[in-house]
Every structure is written in C-alpha cells, then in structure tokens.
Amino acid sequence: MRFRNGLTFLLLAIAAPLASMATERPSSWSDCSYLVVNQTYGNQFNGFLNVPAYFRPFGITPPPGLGVVPNGGLGTMKFLPDGKMTNTETLSIGMIGLQRDLPIKGTYSVAWDTDRSPIVCSGTVQGFDPSGTQYNFAMEVSNDGGTVNLIHTDPGLIVSVLMSRMHTGRCSNDTINANYAVNGQGWVLGAILGAQPAEELGGYVPGSAVGSIRFHPYASPSGFSDAPAGAGTFDWWDTLALNGMIIPRVATGWYKINPDCTGMMTKRDNTGAPDSHLELLVGKDGGMVYNVTLDTVTIPNGMTIPAHVLAMTFDRMNDSRR
Predict the structure, then answer these.
(1) Distance linking the first and last C-alpha atoms of the chain
(2) Considering the entire predicted model, what is its pTM?
(3) Domain boundaries, the chain
(4) By CB distance 3.0 to 4.6 Å, which of 48, 70, 226, 249 could disulfide with 269?
C-alpha cells in the first residue's frame, strides 16, 4: 500500500525497481477475506525511514548525508474481490519530499491463523507504485473487520498504520458538525526553529499536541483568501509541546468536506506562525477525522521538502452535539 510505495515514487531518480517477493499461505489456514472485501478504509501512519538501510539490500548508494528521517501520511485503501486492492495516499518524508494522491495497486491475502489463541485473521499486502516497484506489509484484521493494522516488512521502513472503515455514505461539512479531541505527534524542520544538530533527527525536531476542535459547518470564513465556496469554519484549542517548549495555542480557519469524505483545512493560530494546510479523511459515521499537514519549504539545494511531518487525529467527543 502506502509508505514505501510513495517513497520510491519520490526517489525515482535514484531508486531501482525491487524484486517481487511472493508470500505463500499455509494450506492449514482458511480464508477470512470476507471481513474486508468491498470495504474502503481510511488509514494514517507515522514512523521512520532509515535511508541507508532502505537502499543497502539493493546495492544502491543513498543520498548523501541522510540517515533516519521521519515518515508520515494518510490515505484510503479498498479491498476488492479476487485478492486485489487499490490505495491512494499522501506521503510526507522528512528531507525528501511530499507526494499527494499517489496511486498504489496490488494484492492481498488473509486467512485465519489457527496457531494463535484466540485465532487471528492475518496475512500480507503487496502493492506497486507507478514505477512498478513492489512494497510489502504484514496485515492483521479485527474480528469484525472494522479495523486493519499494517506494518511494513521492507528493510529500512519502520512504519505501522491503523486503518478504519471510512464513512459509507456521502459526506459534507455537516458530517463532522461536532466537538472533537485533537491528538497529534510528529516533526518540525529544525531550521525553522533555529534548532541545534544535537536536537534533531534527520533535520527535524519532535512535537506533540493535545486539545479540541469544534466545527461550524454553516458559518462562512473571513480573512482567508484560499477559502473555497461552501467552506465552514472551526475553533481550535491545544497545547503544543515542541522541542522542549510548551505552547498553548488558539486557532481558527476554514474546512471543506467533499462528497467522497476527503477534505481540506487551513488553520491560523495565535503564535504568529504561517498558516497550516491539512488534508482530511472522514472515518466511519464521522467518528474520526484523520489529517496530515501539507506545508513545504525549499532548501538551499533547490529541493522542496516537508516543513512538518505531522499526522493527527480528531476523535469525536461523546458530548459533541451540544
């Protein structure tokens, strides 16, 4: 599915196609694909890319100066009949780049693992990005098919992903007319903050935020030149822990949810930082909203890289309709 697929697309100029890796299913297992077939899942991931380890098995010299860098993003995956899958993702890799709407196609195989107690529906996913490179995952499915956990099984990718069924109907701004808890963690480019090398991982410093957001689907935003027609507004409060600093923040902005349950958001807070731009995915029944930041900067060598590698969730509160 996602993470390494996008990585290869971003590094196409220096990456070579990888050999296919077939995984054979033990004959003692019985198929459990009925739990996921014809279902679409929203997914979000955070992790790391060990650049030298990623390239080492293929005899490729990695880009100079890159070690371990942060990796994050989100997307949608649909499990089709006959073991086929499609995936579209937005991938953010520190010091390398941001890739939106990356298409992935491939196969999956799941079966009940009777060697475990209780038994588990597990298997593998293999996907191909537009370069033709294959990527591999181990996969576990909840017993009701509501969630799927994936982890990369490719060298150098330390990335796991939680997938939940997406909203099954048409979405609108009103689908998330609620209060949500905000929870996010990720990385900010150290050069933006004047950080010292000893504080950085792959040029980035850690950050985490917890707070709440209230969406107002029928209010019209003002003061945002990028707000599209039909956008709603929101109020956001959180506490940001950023590289040792504790920063209470208040923010507002606009959001727009599309009929396919994807969306966009622009956020402006009271710290004087540049506006943040986020891509959104609405989970089942609007209970969860996944998001990833899209902001980039151009560094002296001419590369455009993520200013933040940050994936967050909005989790609807029980009193959200008050």
Answers:
(1) 39
(2) 0.85
(3) 3-22+30-165, 173-316
(4) 249
